[in-house]
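Notes, Module 5: Reading structure tokens.

Key idea: the token line is not a picture. It is a compressed description, and you learn to read it the same way you learned to read a sequence, by spotting repeated patterns. We will look at two proteins. The first is printed below with its tokens.
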Amino acid sequence: MNKNFKDMLLESESGYMMPFSLKEDEELQITLGYGKQKNPKTGEDFIHQGIDLLVKDKTLYAIASGYIIGMGQNATLDNYIVAKYGKYEVTYGHISKAYKKYGMMINAGEEIAQSGDFLHVSVRFDGEELDPMEFLSMVWANIQQLAAMGITKQPTNE
């Protein structure tokens, strides 16, 4: 993808939030990375269009202002929900429960789902796949920039 980073900025009237929280002593474990990977069961190479994170039974939050544009169940993702944040579409797979329904507007910090035994995250920008870690790094940078400006309150779903 030919990236024009100015066009890729994520604007959000409701602020920004990481998709889940970790305790201070918790370490984020990526169980399957983005791109070319080996299938853990068969050993065959395949292209993984997201990342899998070991975050069991975590509340998942809306990252920014957006909408729920998809949800369902399939053999690859089990139960899933898709949120659209501007030109970004984020798919959360292997969820145990969705708290929002299709078409609902969401704001940063609102609870949107509950992860299952692990969480699959994939991201598309303007219809093209990208590494979810790049997207999550951008969201984290937005949170840090706001904190540097003295805006430290995290959004809530009140």
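Here is the second protein, with the sequence above and the tokens below, as before.
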Amino acid sequence: MKQTKVFHVAAHDGYQLEVKIDFPPNSKSIAVFCQGSGPNTYDNHRELNGRHFNYFDLFADECCRRGIAFCRWNTRGCRLSDCAPDFVAVNEAEFSTYCPETSVQDILTVKRFVKALPAFQHSKVLLMGMSEGASLIPFAAEKCRDVAGLLLLSFSCRN
């Protein structure tokens, strides 16, 4: 049975990241997920044709089914909201600190945080990025020696 926890983690510059982890019992790996560009939350709650869903439930459920914990966080300046269709509230001043350099540092902060948790101290870390996140993950991986793999979900518009 999947468990879920939300943590507040201080980033390198003191910004408080809101981190969500879904995990099965005795997970041997954890996927640290970096989102694409724009305002995103750790759920990316959406409404489509009157149906409500959390975008990342699909990833979390499938990872947990395979024995892999799934970790993600709110983009800087973004919080969960009740307002459709995107269900995200944006603090413009905090969102202005969201850029590639801080995003790479946030990936590293979250990776260090999960590795310090007793449940994941011996877990393999997979860095997973989608869209812009797939561009940022290699920069974070370059600064780590304890990453077991990269999962990059993106496309290339040029050869």
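Summary for the second protein:
- The mean pLDDT is 94.
- The chain has four helices and ten strands.
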